[in-house]
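Pasting as-is:
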Amino acid sequence: MPTDADKTPTPICSREQPLGVTRLVSMAGRSLDQRFGVVWVAGEVSNLRTPSSGHLYFTLKDARAALPVVMFRSAASKLRFRLEDGLGVRCRGRLSIYEVQGRFQLTADFAEPEGVGAQQIALEKLKAKLAKEGLFDAARKKPLPRLPRRIAVV
């Protein structure tokens, strides 16, 4: 018995009549909204930015994927906790495409903390281990030359 996955979608454009970028991105955004509606997503906050507009921009991530998130000022002002990198959160929102950049994102209207994220805990454990080994001691640090001969970017 054939399933929906077996069906080939009906083409909405052709070589002779291609879609414009704006129209395609707009259609994709509407499809996302119709397919998923409101979703809850759990992950760890990273790359938090808080511009003067009052909006919040961050990435929700887990071990295998990352999702850009925007929370507009009206929703961000209602948060009852301080959002910060490494914090585990649950966000409610709608999937959308930021048309100007063609970027898939979650537009969140609510968030609640879940605790410190697993990746942040792993980082703190690693820092503690390296500190215990003395790798952060001031005595181990070498002074930088006044005029370096070479600079490497890693």
